[in-house]
Specification:
Length: 214
């Protein structure tokens, strides 16, 4: 059975990926590898960061002594929010948006990131608050001379005037997907997993995996 190491400690991302890819695969996460190196996400693009995470972890796993699951691949997700009125920010800085101007390391709490986003958009009227989530998945097999495959997805929408809903994570309480009146945090997991940037990228990954089956 194909096994993916999902290269994140974000339990929400893991849950979404497992729910969308389903029972056909086996999943490990970074929690199964406490010694895994922390990858510095300093690339200028989602594709660059996703590739960096997948390749560095696949190299670390390949060099590690001991048995390894057959057919193990690293699946890394890099994702974020782009807001048109902010010229694409927070973009690759989505996870640490609240601290990005202070040169501080590490992610910042979702509530702080959302508060900063609302503050920057305070004067921007509803019809000019277009935004999208983007996701790039990088898949790198663990082994000799691995080739990394990339799959991307986007979900168009807008940023609301105040947070709404308890579900999801990150900017979900502020993001209203196109064609809906509720935020991702209000729509719930099942609806989000049909519409989201991650769902679209995972759909492309699934289609590609279908072409690889022997
Ligand atoms: P990453 O873990 O470095 O890819 O950072 C992703 C960041 O983008 C998260 O911490 C969230 O702030 C934001 N983000 C990505 N995907 C989503 C989503 O599906 N909903 C809400 N926020 C998201």
């Amino acid at each position: 059975m194909k096994t993916f190491l999902i290269a994140t400690r974000n339990a929400h991302k893991v849950g979404e990926i497992r729910a969308i890819l389903g029972g056909e695969f086996q999943f490990l996460t970074l929690n199964d590898f406490p010694g895994a190196p922390a990858v510095v996400e300093d690339a200028a693009t989602f594709a660059g960061n996703a590739t960096k995470k997948a390749v560095e972890l696949a190299q670390w796993l390949a060099a590690r002594p001991g048995p390894r699951a057959a057919g193990l691949s690293v699946l890394a997700d890099d994702s974020g929010l782009e807001v048109d009125a902010l010229q694409g920010a927070p973009g690759v800085h989505s996870a640490r948006f609240a601290a990005v101007d202070h040169l501080k390391d590490g992610n910042t709490p979702d509530a702080d990131n959302n508060a900063k986003l609302l503050r920057l958009l305070r004067e921007v009227p509803a019809e000019q608050r277009a935004a999208r989530f983007r996701c790039v998945l990088a898949l790198t097999p663990v082994g000799a001379a691995p080739v990394t495959e990339l799959f991307d997805g986007a979900c168009e929408g807008r940023i609301d005037l105040a947070p709404r809903g308890q579900g999801g994570f990150g900017y979900d309480p502020l993001f209203i997907p196109h064609g809906f009146a509720q935020s991702f945090a209000e729509l719930g997991e099942a609806t989000k997993n049909q519409l989201s940037h991650r769902a679209k990228a995972l759909g492309k990954l699934q289609a590609w995996l279908g072409t690889q089956a022997t």
